[in-house]
Automatic annotation (TrEMBL), chain A:
Protein localization: Membrane
Membrane topology: Multi-pass membrane protein
Transmembrane segments: 72-96, 173-192, 450-468
UniProt entry tagged with the keyword Transmembrane: yes
Name this polypeptide is given: Cytochrome c biogenesis protein
Domain ResB-like: 22-510
One of the GO biological process terms: cytochrome complex assembly
A Pfam family the protein falls into: ResB
Coiled-coil intervals: none
UniProt xrefs under InterPro entries: Cyt_c_bgen_Ccs1/CcsB/ResB, ResB-like_domain
Organism: Saccharopolyspora thermophila
The entry's keywords: Cytochrome c-type biogenesis, Membrane, Transmembrane, Transmembrane helix
Designated gene of the protein: resB
Gene Ontology, cellular component aspect: membrane
Region annotation (Disordered) ranges: 520-541
TrEMBL record, chain B:
Organism annotation: Saccharopolyspora thermophila
Protein name, as recorded: C-type cytochrome biogenesis protein CcsB
Transmembrane segment boundaries: 13-35, 78-103, 115-132, 153-171, 183-211, 238-261, 273-291, 303-327
Residues of the Cytochrome c assembly protein domain: 125-328
Keywords for this protein: Cytochrome c-type biogenesis, Membrane, Transmembrane, Transmembrane helix
Domain of life: Bacteria
Gene of this entry: ccsB
Length: 541, 333
């Protein structure tokens, strides 16, 4: 029993040691890089579902296998998560002992001067016309800012051990801890954040963040149930797009108003010009412009003279020309009888072109801006299937209704603004005009400031760590054996140096320092002084 | 924002000229590399110079130096010309970018063509900085001839990239698409450019390190080629220093990109292909720095990691921008 326990403990200890070793960290880093690569190469569901669908069509055998492996959701897959979780466990397991280690080093005095300084990677010596005291005083002055201890040695010799660059390790620790913070901050955002998309027509329409049902799509963080959204309202008055002659967009501008906080009570609206790169930040949420398009306006006049106007977004099918498709749907007004109502619903569906070009009777768009709008529409009458309980796209009609013959095409025509179609029963469908719509994204992430803070700490930490060298210098002054009696005091001074980090560039610093200490600065290229200053061999091991 | 066509035409001409100059420089570098004396012979001459005079740097006139006017051999003159051509190329290339900037009234890195061009400029400048610093430091592990030997191998990818940018990726001068109209393009993209350029140099140094290390392990292998390169230690140090200096810049570029993405795309990180690939490259370089601190991984293995990092960077620049549809695809491609 006891033996069993000891073995288990030993196993645990060895696993922990293995996990927190530098080599494991290296391997895990490498695995992380490799595991992330498919995320860039294989389409990802969270980014582009239609690309994923295309992949399934193009590689019908491969795609399901990849799907099983989670290749279309790399960044939420179990294997990706296990790599980074292991890496971060390793990281923490590595950091804690290093903090303690560092604390001990920081408390300790710089190490004793080695007996044989000429064994150091950097070494120079000279005989000076000065006393040991003078040499020591000068050295102390030159080494100001270094951590220093002075020690007495045998035979009247004295030495200084000096050390510098402790900040390097602090930078390194800050960097690694900030990585942990970054991960925690990102995870917090996934728990407490939300993101919603909504299309608002730019004719003074409003949107209020009062519930998830107001959105076209909504992605809630794991703890968000949609009841506690930040309260605010938006109103989109106008949408202005500027195009270059080649059709490239020069600027999008959404003229909008918002209310949040007290303004909601008092009904005050504040203006904002929403642009790409300039989100509106209110009530802890951010509002972005992420898309745009056109909404044609149709008016249907029923045989009894009643009118209904429909204005709903159509979907751009070509971002270059903004040719759009969609379906505007109407219920006959004042019809109580369900059956009758379902025989007379109307859908206007087809294509919209902001700048019409016709190839025969086929409509296409020549330019994305609203220069010469036209629609090519089918008018369908019958049962739209809106009551069937099945969801349907707002951009099209339920094809199964057409297939069952319950929804029939009664007209097909190209219309310009003001033109109308007259149906057999006297109903008219008029194309009245166009509005633009803006796709707005509302994002909420209470952890974002934390993530930013840790990101800055990452940069500061890594910068400090890589810019600062940890290095040691020793100076030893020994009275020259022939110096007494003759009147002139002489001292043999030796300087040794060691860079403790894998960091090039210490050689130059040491050369300068030694030149100052040995008084060879004037002619520091003199053969003897250079003789022992090895080539810049900074590597410790 | 209208485009000044005259300036943009001059910019294109300067671009083409700089490519020609770089090709000339590359050939001259290779000329010196092929016909230069091997390291040992050159080193002998260097040491003669050192003991004859100050030695730290040859530019520093030392009183009393007895100089036998020794005509520099042809190969060294080729090397000198190569460096001069490189400097000239940088000037013309820089002018091409500046003119683009003036023609369009914006930073000259708004599309793939301009981005590729700027990265190459950064790489060549990084090379010149290293070269002049190394020459001045007067290290003993590389003669000037050996140092210049790197030049051709750096110019080769640069010329290739410039050629690709100037043909396949070329885009007419024009204003920026709205998503790029932000001061972050100055901060984020310039950091990415500088980092990519310097990492290109580091990668080339690591490739040469591997070749030289092979030669040092067995001097019979690639004897001619290997002996003309600086020592493996010098190459390793150059690659490492370049990476160490630029890693924080690359980190900064990614973080600045995230800050920009927060304003432009509605989230600071979304695993867009470009973001993913930059992250992968970053992790690979982090692995490189770790490898340098891990026993048994310094040297050859670390060099391979560095090369892999460069491969990911290049893949990120071309494949991701061109083939994979993401938010990052530049206008005019
Ligand atoms: C989240 C993944 C990690 C990343 C991105 C990362 C990144 C880095 C980078 C860029 C450096 C070089 C900067 C410097 O020297 O200060 C570094 C150094 C270092 N890392 Fe990490 N690291 C990670 C995880 C780890 C882990 C798990 C360990 C422990 C096994 C570790 C231990 C070290 C040590 C000891 C150094 C100092 C090396 C030296 O003295 O040059 N790191 N790390």
């Amino acid at each position: 029993m006891r033996g069993y326990l000891t073995t288990t403990l030993a196993l645990l200890r060895n696993t922990w040691r293995g996990l927190t070793s530098m080599r494991t960290a290296l391997v895990l880093l490498f695995l992380l890089a490799l595991a992330a690569l498919p995320g860039a190469l294989i389409p990802q569901r969270s980014l582009n579902q239609s690309e994923v669908d295309r992949y399934f069509r193009e590689y019908p055998t491969l795609a399901p296998i990849l799907d099983k492996l989670g290749a279309f959701e790399v960044f939420s897959s179990v294997w990706f998560a296990s790599i980074y979780v292991l890496l971060f466990i390793s990281l923490i397991g590595c950091l804690l002992p290093r903090c303690y280690e560092y604390y001990k080093q920081w408390r300790a005095k710089p190490v004793r001067t080695p007996r044989n300084l000429s064994r150091m990677p950097h070494h120079e010596s000279a005989t000076l016309h000065a006393s040991v005291d003078e040499v020591m005083a000068a050295a102390r002055k030159r080494l100001r800012g270094w951590r220093m201890v002075e020690r007495e040695e045998a035979d009247g010799a004295r030495s200084i051990s000096a050390e510098r660059g402790f900040l390097r390790e602090i930078g390194n620790l800050v960097f690694h801890f900030a990585l942990v913070g970054l991960l925690v901050g990102v995870a917090g955002g996934k728990l407490y954040g939300y993101e919603g998309q909504v299309i608002v027509i730019a004719d003074g329409s409003e949107f209020c963040n009062s519930g998830t049902y107001n959105y076209d799509s909504f992605r809630a963080g794991l703890t968000v149930d949609g009841t506690q959204l930040s309260p605010f309202c938006l109103r989109v008055n106008d949408f202005d797009v500027q195009y270059q002659p080649n059709g490239q967009v020069e600027a999008f501008r959404v003229d909008m108003q918002y209310q949040a906080g007290d303004d909601l009570e008092t009904g005050t609206w504040r203006p904002y010009l929403l642009q790409v790169n300039h989100p509106l930040r209110i009530a802890g949420d951010r509002i972005y412009l992420t898309g745009n398009g056109y909404a044609p306006r149709f008016t249907v006049t029923f045989p009894d003279g009643q009118q209904r106007t429909g204005l709903i977004q159509w979907q751009p099918v070509s971002p270059q020309t903004m040719l759009s498709q969609g379906a505007t749907k109407f219920d006959p007004p004042g019809v109580q009888d369900e059956v009758q109502r379902r025989q007379n619903q109307i859908a206007v569906t087809g294509l919209f072109a902001p700048t019409a070009t016709f190839d025969g009777a086929v409509l296409s768009s020549g330019f994305p801006d609203l220069l010469d709008p036209a629609v090519a529409v089918d008018v369908l009458r019958g049962d739209l299937g809106l009551d069937s309980g099945r969801g349907q796209s707002i951009f099209g009609v339920d094809q199964s209704m057409v297939d069952q013959g319950r929804l029939k095409r009664v007209a097909r025509e190209n219309l310009r603004i003001g033109q109308e179609i007259r149906l057999d029963d006297g109903t008219t469908v008029r194309f009245d005009g166009v509005e633009r719509w803006a796709n707005l994204q509302v994002s909420h992430d209470p952890f974002q400031p934390w993530v930013l803070g840790f990101a800055i700490a990452v940069i500061v930490g890594i910068g400090t760590s890589l810019a600062i060298k940890r290095r040691r210098v020793w100076v030893r002054a020994v009275p020259h054996p022939e110096s007494d009696g003759s009147g002139s005091v002489r001292t043999v001074v030796e300087v040794g140096g060691l860079a403790r980090t894998d960091q090039a560039g210490y050689g130059e610093e040491f050369t300068r320092l030694a030149a100052d200490l040995l008084g060879t600065g004037v002619d520091h290229s003199s053969p003897e002084a250079r003789a022992t200053a090895g080539p810049a061999r900074e590597r410790k091991s | 924002m209208s485009v000044n066509q005259t300036l943009s035409t001059y910019s294109d001409m300067a671009y083409a000229t700089s490519v020609v100059i770089y090709i000339a420089a590359m050939l001259l570098y290779f000329g010196e590399f092929a016909y230069g004396r091997t390291g040992t012979a050159a080193r002998k001459r260097e040491s003669v110079l050192v003991s004859a005079g100050g030695g730290e740097s040859t530019e520093q006139p030392v009183v009393g130096r007895i100089e036998t006017p020794q005509k520099r051999p042809l190969s060294e003159r080729l090397g000198g010309m190569a460096v001069a051509m490189t400097v000239l190329g940088v000037l013309v290339h820089g002018a091409s970018l500046l003119l683009r900037g003036f023609a369009t009234g914006r930073v000259p890195w708004g599309n793939m063509y301009e981005f590729g061009s700027a990265i190459c400029l950064a790489a060549v400048i990084a090379w010149l900085v290293v070269l002049f610093r190394q020459l001045r430091a007067g290290r003993r592990d590389a003669t000037p001839t050996q140092l210049r030997g790197l030049g051709g191998f750096l110019m080769l990818p640069v010329v290739l990239l410039l050629f690709l940018s100037g043909t396949v990726l070329y885009a007419q001068a024009g204003p920026l698409i709205p998503a790029l109209q932000s001061y972050w393009i100055v901060i984020h993209v310039s950091a990415a450019i500088v980092a990519s350029g310097v990492l290109l140099f580091a990668g080339v140094a690591s490739v040469l390190y591997l070749l030289r290390a092979r030669y040092e392990n067995n001097p019979l292998k690639m004897a001619k080629f290997g002996s003309r390169l600086p020592t493996s230690q010098a190459l390793d140090r150059m690659a490492y220093r370049a990476t160490v200096i630029i890693f924080p810049v690359w980190t900064f570029a990614i973080i600045a990109g995230a800050i920009w993405a927060e304003a432009a795309w509605g989230r600071f990180w979304g695993w867009d292909p470009k973001e993913t690939c930059s992250f992968v490259a970053w992790v690979v370089y982090a692995a490189y720095l770790h490898a340098r601190a891990t026993a048994g991984w310094r040297g050859v293995r670390a060099a391979w990691i560095n090369i892999f990092g460069l491969a990911v960077m290049i893949f990120n620049l071309f494949f991701i921008n061109i083939v994979v549809a993401g938010l990052h695809s530049y206008a005019g491609l």
